[in-house]
Amino acid sequence: MKFTLKNAATKEQLIEIDRSIWTGKTIIKVDGIETKKLSRLEFSYVDKDNQNSHIKLQGNDLRGLQAVINGKVVDLNKKLSSFEYTLVLLPLLLTFIFMIINGGGAILGAISGFIGILFGYLNASLIRETNKLFLKILLSIALSAASVFAFIFVAILF
Questions:
Q1: Which of 86, 94, 88, 82 lies closest to 126, judged by CA?
Q2: What is the CATH number of the domain that holds 66?
Q3: Is pTM beyond 0.85 here?
Q4: Mean of the pLDDT values across residues 22-29?
Q5: 47-79, pLDDT tens digit by residue?
Q6: Number of domains the chain contains
Q7: Last residue of a domain, one of 54, 77, 100
Q8: Residues 53, 46: contact at Cβ < 8 Å?
Q9: pLDDT tens across 105-157, in order?
């Protein structure tokens, strides 16, 4: 996922955050120059006033990600409400139920878990981008159905 920031907290400098959803590897660039990594989620750079500045990432992609820039908190992706979490978990729940109905097993369990998590993550991304409740529910139902169909397709192959 890529995030870009340019506001008062960044002293009007362009900050680009590139975070891999697979490995968690994070690269942060300020005005095109890569920052110095201090720890796993903490970075340092020299701002336009030639002062050392720090960026620390908090949270995760599911709960909500924040950047703390010199003590100022900037939301990168919003936190989900309880209802939105329910919608996010719907693909995982439905693939799990469908796996149990069809006899289960270790391999089918792993397949249903992988597909459910993949579609749940996609669902969380779409829910964050959508403002209308009706569309959130509709997208969640569509992705849940797609996750079950994907599970059936993959299960037939095994």
A1: 88
A2: 2.40.128.180
A3: no
A4: 84
A5: 888 888 889 988 877 778 888 888 888 888 888
A6: 2
A7: 77
A8: yes
A9: 788 888 888 998 899 889 988 898 888 999 999 999 999 999 999 988 988 88
β-sheet bridge partners, residue 46 = 52
Amino acid code (one letter) for 44: S
Last residue of a domain, one of 58, 77, 96: 77
Residue 70, burial from CB neighbour count under 10 angstroms (0-12, 13-18, 19+): middle
**With contact defined as beta carbons under 8 Å apart, do 2 and 22 qualify?**
no
> Could you give the count of Cα atoms lying within 13 Å of 111 in the half-sphere of its Cβ?
21
Instruction: Provide the domain limits for residue 53.
Output: 2-77
Q: Are 55 and 43 in contact, with CB atoms under 8 Å apart?
A: yes
Given a contact cutoff of 8 angstroms between Cβ atoms, the answer to whether 28 and 35 are in contact is yes
Question: What stretches of 44-105 show up as alpha helix (H) in DSSP?
Answer: 82-101
CA distance 71 to 87: 33
Grouping H, G, I as helix, E, B as strand and the rest as coil, residue 63 is: coil
Residue-wise DSSP of 12-54: T--EEEEE-TTT--EEEEETTEEPEEEETTEEEEE-TTS-EEE
